[in-house]
Amino acid sequence: MGVSGCGKTEVGRAVAERWGAAFQDGDDWHTAAAVARMAGGTPLSDVERAPWLERLREKVVEATPVGGRTVLACSALRRKYREALAGGAAGVRVVYLAGSRELIGARLAERRGHYMPAGLLDSQFAALEVPGAEEAVAVSIAGTVPEVAEEVMRAAGLDYCGEWADRGREGR
């Protein structure tokens, strides 16, 4: 979880690969109308986010088979969003990808091909309720994607899939 531009998708994919898990990007579950609204520079309201969070909970969290693993990249900026996603499901872990406004702003300025304009970053930080240690593991995004993914694995206590040792530790 984290604000737009913090690396949720790339880090999430890297963690999923290392962990032997499926990967889902919350952005892929937005409606066309929601994407158009955000692309136009208007943040979504809680009312507009609610059906999206419900889809994510049903189609990703609840759809993960018992004993299965799924990494979900999702902004989940507010505590109530994180609670809605987990829906009381056992085994849901939250990782907060933390970075400064300056670092993330610089990354957004370089990003191409994503609907979320850099102009919405301030609204993301305004909506962000930084999770406490009881709710999430916080990991700095200051490193490269492989470095951050490695720190997520360590901080969240995730084990590597059996293929990991065969590929070496160089990452993606």
Short descriptors:
172 residues; mainly alpha; Rossmann fold; two-stranded parallel sheet; two-stranded parallel ribbon; disordered C terminus
Summarize the topology:
Blueprint: H1 8-19, E1 22-25, H2 32-39, H3 46-61, E2 70-73, H4 79-86, E3 95-98, H5 101-110, H6 121-127, E4 137-140, H7 145-156, H8 164-167
Parallel strand pairs: 1-2, 3-4
Helix pairs in contact: 1-7, 3-4
CATH topology: Rossmann fold
Main CATH class? Alpha Beta
Order of helices and strands: HEHHEHEHHEHH
Instruction: Provide the residue-averaged pLDDT.
Output: 87
- Give the strand line-up of the largest sheet: 1-2
In the CATH classification, which architecture applies?
3-Layer(aba) Sandwich
Tally of separate domains: 1
Number of helices: 8
Low-confidence stretches are 162-172
Multimeric state of these chains? Answer: single chain
The global form is globular
The description of the largest β-sheet is:
2 strands, parallel
